[in-house]
């Protein structure tokens, strides 16, 4: 009896549900046919009028002349284009509105996203967050690259160098130094077929990107600076896949494994173009303007730029945003990638500009040595020349790159003490 009662209740419930659905359907039909209501004097004619008008339109359209049809098609295309343009404007305005809304409350949202709010500790114990969390890897971005990196990366870290046929001689010196030191997590991004074949012949891990007109044009024919600017587009996928990247230009000689000398506590860890403690790590530069009288001295903070040819990126949101910002600006104007790289890292937020909030670290200038430090300071100082062995030497200050790279190998690897002596401090 209980089972029969349950079935009858289920049947009754089903009937009620069906009745409700039928009622909703009838209501929708009536709303379409009688938009002004049942008791409006014009409502009884509205449906008939609509049907008669549509019939007239169909009948008349069959009689339209070819010229008329052509004109209508032209109007349709024109309206479609205007509609697309309006949609684009609406989309852009919507994005600007969203950005404005995000900016007004971004600080609070970022704090909440990092975790629960905490109280400040006693004086001298409060330390801010220095290391941003890494992103969740997304292998769907580039499955082919993901497979390559899985095979060669060590502890999710890899050295990446971009090269085309124009820099082949320097690449040979760099690869020889990489093999001499015993670095295995090194990958060449081959920008043309010549470098791809070169890597195959010399058993060097490489990756050749899928065809991309914008990248290929520069990658196959560009010089050192042009190729250097491509890295900000290329490296994004490495970070999205969850890998830490140590970007290296080809005019660099490796003398030790750099991964043993990194701190890994920042979004960006870069070598400096500075040549002493002040220029590499920053200093208070006082500007003197006598006409101001009592206020003649203005204090400014200065630091030599980060070198965009050798830097370490962790796979964090700020690091990816840095790549996006630089790549976007380079695509719109002919500017030096290193200048843009540093402007995005160091410029503070100000009216109509929201700065990048990335943590940064400068590498030790004697371990990660630029060629100005080597040729102007180290080679002339007996103690430094004897005791300092850099991790890398970047021949960034001099145009005769290949010959100076070879001299670095002769001095630091083969022990030829006068190998550096014949070169001028700067360029001739």
UniProtKB/TrEMBL annotation:
Residues 69-110 form a coiled coil. It is an enzyme of class 2 (transferase). It is found in: Golgi apparatus membrane. It holds the Pfam family Nucleotid_trans. The keyword Glycosyltransferase applies. Residues 183-405 form the Nucleotide-diphospho-sugar transferase domain. Its EC number is 2.4.2.-. It is a single-pass type II membrane protein. The keyword Membrane applies. It comes from the Eukaryota. PROSITE patterns: PROKAR_LIPOPROTEIN. Keywords: Cell wall biogenesis/degradation, Coiled coil, Glycosyltransferase, Golgi apparatus, Membrane, Signal-anchor, Transferase, Transmembrane, Transmembrane helix. InterPro entries: Nucl-diP-sugar_transferase, Nucleotide-diphossugar_trans, RRA1/2/3. The chain crosses the membrane at residues 16-34. Belongs to the glycosyltransferase 77 family. PANTHER family: ARABINOSYLTRANSFERASE RRA3. This is Glycosyltransferase. It comes from Camelina sativa (False flax).
